[in-house]
Amino acid sequence: MVGNRRSPAYEILVCCADADAAEGERLTAYLRDQLGYVVAFYKEMRTGTQWTNEIRLQFDCVRVVVVLHSKNSIGNPYVEDEAIRARRAGTYFPVLLDQLTPEEMIPGDLAIQCIRIDRGCAPTGHTKQKFDNDIDELFVRNGPESVQRMIYRLSNALEKETRLRKLAEEKVMQAALANEDQARQIVREVMDMQIERSLELSEAAIGFARTAVDLIERTMPAERPPAEDLDKLATDLATKLSRIARDTTTAEASAERQELRLRISSVLREVDRLQRLRAARAR
Fold it and tell me: Which residue has better confidence, 152 or 171?
């Protein structure tokens, strides 16, 4: 649990035409399993007379509404309504399954900026990077408590990385003890891996994350809207933290870890800017 606030039941809503339900299920699974979001898929909701009310209720709760556009959704009043409602709420995230002509776009050309995902596939390569980053960015933009969640994800990822590095160090040292002739070489390899530096990075970043939670809570109070510059800065900060969290869990080479150190230093500078802006607002 992050903080004392109660999160909505769902964070993301996925909508599509019935004929594209398999693609919607695949993308829902990706958002849940790969990105860790709490996702509502329209097909999984209760059927019956309350279905329309329930899905509309989710529009008021979720941070992101993913709408799948395709040949099957052309002229579909439900998909069109969902896209328009989401755009009005600022939660609209369009995904394109088929190439559509300008005439096939829904009114207002809402689907022109869609991310294209091939049928039968989860996002991969450059598309995956853009999809993940854009989802995170829109999610963060639509609520201050989501900033806490991003930092919480970072903290968990770094703690996991710390455990893995400690385990690696133990295994290498065990190997050194088992073979005295190679002990010195193995110890040098341990130093080359810069395990201690990696652990220091993790501990420093965890401390920063916890400090940032308190800072952002006080800078962005829920009872009144934040200043525009603070809102943008906090959004950028949380997005960077999310990317660092993903990268940290896969960093292997010392050069990669050094790059992470530089990126975290950059984020710390952003925190300094937040502190100065907060002080300016308090005057």
Answer: 171
